[in-house]
């Protein structure tokens, strides 16, 4: 755990994007959104956040692991995630592509080993990036015994964009923890809460970022939001 955690703790490289867009490195994330009975938005985002950090701390990304080379190349560049949706046979087929699936209640998400956009497995590449969104729900106050990821709802991100952002947030949060805290979190399969913040909660969360008691995702602005937008604030306990 210590060696894998150290990769997240030291932060990510700012290597410039390659000239060929096909050479850009990204972590694909697939959200299971059945047509007939889709999961709640908050549960699905929780599954996406947990899946992303679970892959980053999986033994297979560690020294000598089969995913190590791909993972280190990705963390040495700009951290990108691309979320897609799947249902039925598409979701079943995605389970055969190397990655980690997390279930939170009725919600399921799978994070895949990062790699070149141009080499994306056809079973993932054929899935839609947009087209399906989920209504915002009200799951209630977050439990006191797990990390919470607060989203700025004024940005009006799609569920796919939000999934990528909470995935970034869970990685940043893990990197800000001690190895012991991270190991403890892993015992719950990286369970977390995702909530839309109201105006007061967001202001207080920003203050905790300034105090070094929370971590924030600032988006590069490639899609949906302006560059530098603070999209998600993550903290070890729901202190708001």
Give a short synopsis of this structure:
The chain has 240 residues and is α+β, with helices and mostly antiparallel strands. 33% of the residues lie in helices and 19% in strands.
Overview of the molecule:
Strand 3 and strand 4 form a beta hairpin. This protein has helices spanning 2-9, 41-56, 68-75, 89-94, 122-125, 159-176, 179-186, 199-210, and strands at 25-32, 81-86, 99-104, 107-112, 115-116, 148-151, 193-196, 215-218, 230-235. The mean pLDDT is 94. By secondary structure, the protein is of the alpha+beta class. The strands form 2 sheets. Strands 1, 2, 3, 4 and 5 form a 5-stranded mixed β-sheet that branches. A 4-stranded mixed β-sheet has the order 7-6-9-8, sandwiched between helices. The protein has 8 helices and 9 strands.
Class based on secondary structure composition and strand pairing:
alpha+beta
Rg result: 17 Å
Shape category: globular
Distance between the termini: 30 Å
Integer average pLDDT:
94
- Helix coverage percent: 25-40%
Q: What is the count of β-strands?
A: 9
Strand content bin: 15-25%
- Biggest β-sheet strands, sense, barrel: 5 strands, mixed
Q: Which spans have pLDDT < 50 for at least 5 consecutive residues?
A: none
H/E topology pattern: HEHHEHEEEHEHHEHEE
Q: How many helices does DSSP assign?
A: 8
What key attributes describe this structure?
four-stranded mixed β-sheet; five-stranded mixed β-sheet; alpha+beta; single chain
Topology (elements, then pairings):
Elements: H1 2-9, E1 25-32, H2 41-56, H3 68-75, E2 81-86, H4 89-94, E3 99-104, E4 107-112, E5 115-116, H5 122-125, E6 148-151, H6 159-176, H7 179-186, E7 193-196, H8 199-210, E8 215-218, E9 230-235
Parallel strand pairs: 1-2, 6-7
Antiparallel strand pairs: 1-4, 1-5, 3-4, 6-9, 8-9
